[in-house]
Amino acid sequence: MQRIRRALIDLRRGEPVHLAHPAGGMLILALENLSDALLGRARTLAAGDPYLLITRHRAHAMGLDDGDRHDLAMTLDADHPVETAIELASDQADSPVDRGSRAAEAAEQEALNLARQATLLPALVAIATGEEDARLNDEIGRGEVLSIEITDIHSACIENARQPERISEARVPLADAEQSRFILYREADGLLEHVALIVGDPTQWPDTPALRMHSACLTGDLFGSLRCDCGEQLRSAVGTIADEGGGILLYLAQEGRGIGLANKLRAYGLQDTGLDTVDADRLLGFGADERRYEVAAAMLDDLGIDRVRLMTNNPGKIAALERHGIEIAGREAIHGALNRHNQRYLTTKAERAGHWLEEVITGTADRHSR
C-alpha cells in the first residue's frame, strides 16, 4: 500500500515510475506533466522508444478505435514525441493522425488505472524496460526511481477503499439540522478522506433511516455554481433527513463523478465548446461515471447500517449499494432548481445516464420545500 501511495504522488509530481512485470516492465510518465526535459531524463534510464497509452474512452471519442473499444498503445513521432503525445491525449483534435496503434496489454491497462487513481488525465507515456537498462536498475536500487509490481495496482485500489479508518468525530450543529455529528474516515493509503454526517439521535431514528450519498462538489457545494444542482441537493438532503427523524449523509471525496477537480474544470472547458458532460469526460479519457462505492459500503458497515431509504436520482447508486450488501428499502427523489446554466447538464444525465430527472426537467419536481 505504501509503495502504491508513493507511486501516485510521484506521478502527480511528474516523476517517472517503474512498473515491474514478469513479461517485461515499463517506465511511465503522466501526460499532463510531460515536458521535453522530463522525457529526456526518462530516456536516459530506459533505451526503448516512448509510446503513448490512452483509454478506450479517449480513443473512441477521437475515432481511433474502429469501434473495438480497447485502451490503445500508440506510436509517437520520433522527432517530436512530446508534442505528438499532447496532441493525441489532451487536445480536441478533429482529425488525429494515427501513426500506428495496438490494443493495450493488461499490464498497460493497469498503468492507466494508476493514473486514474491519481486523478490525473488517464494518459501516459511509457517506455519498455529490461535488465539491460543498467542506469534505471541502479536508480531503482538507490530509491531514486520507484518500482512497483503491476499486479499490486488493482488489489491495492480495492483494499484501500474497503478499509477506511475512523479518525475523528465531533458534534457540529447545522442550520438545517442542529443535532448533527461529523465522523471523518480516512482511506488506508492516507490520501482521501470522507465524512459521515449523522443527523439526529441514532437511538431515535426510524427503523429504516434515510441515506444520502453525496459526491463532493467544490464549485456547487461551496460556491453555489449554477452549472450543477449539487449545492441545493446537499442542503436539501440535510434538512429533509432531519425532518424525517434522522439518518446519514455520506460526503464522499468523488469530485466530478470521480475524476477530480482539475479534470472537472477541464471538462467544463470542453463543455463550453459544445460538448455535453458525458462526451467531455470521454474526450478526456474517462467513462461517464468513474465513482466506486466500496468506501461508502465500508463506512455504513462501521456505522452498523445495512438497510436504508436512499435519497437519489441515480439508479447506479442503488445497484452499487445492493452489490455490497446494503438493502434499499425505498428511494426518495432529491432535486435542485433548473436554470439556463444547468439545463443541458441535467438533461444529459437523464437521457444518457438514465437518472430519474423527468420531474425537474419538466418543472414538476417537489424540491422538498421546507
Automatic annotation (TrEMBL):
Active site as annotated: 289, 291
GO cellular component: cytosol
A GO term, aspect molecular function: GTP binding
Entry EC no(s): 3.5.4.25
Keywords of this entry: GTP-binding, Hydrolase, Metal-binding, Nucleotide-binding, Riboflavin biosynthesis, Zinc
GTP cyclohydrolase II domain boundaries: 166-331
Cofactor: Zn(2+)
Binding site for GTP: 212-216, 233, 255-257, 277, 312, 317
List of residues binding Zn(2+): 217, 228, 230
A biological process term (GO) from this entry: riboflavin biosynthetic process
Cofactor comment text: Binds 1 zinc ion per subunit.
Pathway assigned to this chain's UniProt record: Cofactor biosynthesis; riboflavin biosynthesis; 5-amino-6-(D-ribitylamino)uracil from GTP: step 1/4
UniProt signal peptide: none
Purpose: Catalyzes the conversion of GTP to 2,5-diamino-6-ribosylamino-4(3H)-pyrimidinone 5'-phosphate (DARP), formate and pyrophosphate.
Family as reported in the entry's similarity comment: In the N-terminal section; belongs to the DHBP synthase family. Belongs to the GTP cyclohydrolase II family.
NCBIfam families, sorted: PRK00393.1
Record's protein name: GTP cyclohydrolase-2
